[in-house]
């Protein structure tokens, strides 16, 4: 269990912002932290990691105090034993994949964990390569593996997948889910991606202007909205054609083209390139797993 009760005055470009968070996170939870840019998400992770000192408050993990301003107690990042992965990989360019992992090993510790991680993250074919020769997704797999070399109990992830394209990102999410379970981690991940949050999170937290404004399971946070009986998507108008008294709109939705019938008065208002919402009562939709 992580119990975090911290305050810190941060300096944003709009002036001072009070980060004031009182959070309990259960052992083994996968928590996704969302919220607007500048809300304080990274600062929160950095405080937990011991990289940023709160002005006041306490941080306790499994009945051990990591930080207590009143008692002048402040464990160093090394003493906190957590794994941290940022968006920018931060691998040593002059070392191979294996050497990058070995460098994170404590002196005298068994190298079994390196083999286990190389196996689990499917890095076998890449272990002799240098980071410069790897793709973004491969680099991030190495960074994830490296964060686990010291077998931390807590893993902090600051938008680790946001620089990756959607397909690689989905694969990395599977790796994350796998290591979270295999290493019995408590994982706290900053992400702006709703799909990612729903896929991975036991609990989602939203920060706004330094405070927690929402907290709950994805079903609790999105459940009501999803049960409205309607669905909608946005698309870009590609063409508007008249066929047999019908106006057919071709829309680009993601990488697909979707055709919908549109009312004549509405069709007259539209031109190619316009952004539109298509909404419908979800009366009898066809659902296929992707
Ligand atoms: N050490 C610090 N001292 C004072 N202010 C800071 C410090 N670090 C960050 N800030 C400020 O705190 C605010 C919140 O920053 P933070 O990086 O935590 O936000 P964020 O929610 O992670 O944003 P983003 O999604 O853009 O990464 C910013 O305005 C930033 O300038």
Automatic annotation (TrEMBL):
Residues 1-234 form the ABC transporter domain. Gene3D superfamilies: P-loop containing nucleotide triphosphate hydrolases. It holds the Pfam family ABC_tran. One of its GO terms (molecular function) is ATP binding. GO terms for cellular component: membrane. It comes from the Bacteria. Keywords: ATP-binding, Cell membrane, Ion transport, Iron, Iron transport, Membrane, Nucleotide-binding, Transport. SUPFAM superfamilies: P-loop containing nucleoside triphosphate hydrolases. PROSITE patterns: ABC_TRANSPORTER_1, ABC_TRANSPORTER_2. This is Molybdate transport system ATP-binding protein. It comes from Roseivirga pacifica.
